[in-house]
Design goal:
CATH architecture of the largest domain: Alpha-Beta Complex
Number of domains: 2
Radius of gyration: 32 Å
Oligomer: single chain
Strand order of the largest sheet: 8-5-3-2-1-11
CATH topology of the largest domain: 2-enoyl-CoA Hydratase, Chain A, domain 1
Distance between the termini: 97 Å
Number of helices: 13
Shape: elongated
């Protein structure tokens, strides 16, 4: 009886162990089925949009966006563009930042109806990837010498004009050749002022893509292998893109507004008339204050004064107005003018 009881007890324990083992085997696959799959790493995209002429404030805006891209270790920078052109010096500063960027850069002429003319053409072709939306155009990149006072093309000697055109064409060839694009066709935009639709630019191998939206652009670029300016190849990994849009600051928008041709003309007229009125009718004070501030801003808009020098000059003007307010009775006009000049100067100096 004891032997039979012992055997039965042993069999019971074995059965329990077998059932537990079977349950564990069944439970392990169930755990694997319920465990969530690891999420794919998201690509970080930094976007900015230049919707104005190419000038020093636009360069500052582009630099701030590139700095943000470096800060967050972005995978790609997308520069949206709609510009009629701009200053040669500002254009070259942008191109230098683009070709030296460790992060791949796409220049995308968008939305439909936009253009990348003149300086914008150079910037478009300097990018790692050049793209355009349907219904856009680019080209017409012949350099113009503009009169500072009139804002119209200046009359220059033919030999001087030839030098400027030849240098601009050589600069474009040096960029386009490194990017593997059509050098001969690109050069015609400078020497013959030739312009191209999005379709013509694609067929001429000036650009890489024609896409209607930024979303479609990122989709087509995912997995694409590009050649950087230094000749190295890179495959873009843009799965699950997280897009960060960098906008102009209030300061940049204000300064950009001053640089518009219509605002510049108004500032120049106010400056000249204000100072003329003050000199011909001493003691009115108001025309002199308005004229002085307007003229300094006009010098900035004419690109005679850089932004830092303009800020310092406005602060010096503010100090002069404060001193005059202490010496003469102006019913607060000189003080208000000084305060305005001080705020404007500080806005230009402090980012």
């Amino acid at each position: 009886m004891k032997v039979a009881g012992f055997a039965l007890n042993k069999l019971s324990r074995c059965a329990v162990m077998l059932m537990a083992g079977a349950s564990l085997v069944a439970f392990v696959p169930m755990l694997g089925a319920q465990a969530p799959a690891p999420a794919a790493e998201s690509a970080r995209i930094v976007e900015l949009h230049i919707d104005d002429i190419i000038h020093p404030v636009a360069v500052e805006y582009l630099n701030s966006a590139f700095d943000e891209a470096a800060r967050i270790n972005a995978n790609l920078i997308v520069v949206g563009m709609n510009t009629p052109g701009g200053l040669d010096s500002s254009m070259r500063a942008m191109i230098q930042r683009i070709i030296q960027s460790p992060i791949p850069v796409v220049v995308y002429v968008s939305p439909s109806g936009s253009r990348a003319a003149s300086a914008g053409f150079f910037i478009l072709l300097s990018a790692d990837v050049a793209a355009m939306a349907p219904g856009t155009d680019t080209g017409a990149a012949s350099p113009l010498l503009i009169s500072i006072l009139s804002g119209t093309p200046a009359t220059v000697d033919e030999s001087v004009k030839k030098k400027v055109v030849n240098e601009a064409a050589a600069y474009l060839r040096s960029i386009v050749g490194k990017r593997g694009r059509n050098v001969e066709t690109a050069e015609k935009a400078v020497t013959e002022a030739k312009a191209f639709t999005d379709k013509e630019a694609l067929e001429s191998k000036l650009i890489d893509l024609v896409v209607p939206t930024t979303e479609e652009l990122l989709t087509q670029l995912n997995g694409r292998t590009i050649t950087r300016f230094d000749g190295k190849t890179l495959t873009l990994e843009l799965k699950n893109p997280v897009r960060t849009r960098v906008e102009m600051t209030g300061r940049q928008r204000f300064l950009s507004r001053i640089l518009r041709p219509d605002v510049f003309f108004i500032l120049l007229i106010l400056g000249v008339l204000g100072l003329y009125t003050e000199f011909t009718h001493p003691g009115l004070i108001v025309p002199g204050v308005i004229g002085g501030i307007s003229l300094v801003l006009a010098l900035f808009a004419m690109h005679i004064l850089p932004v830092n020098a303009t800020g310092i000059l406005l602060i010096l003007l503010a100090l002069a107005l404060f001193i005059l307010e202490a010496k003469f009775t102006s019913h607060g006009v000189l003080g208000l003018g000084g305060a305005l000049a001080m705020v404007l100067g500080a806005m230009m100096l402090i980012r």
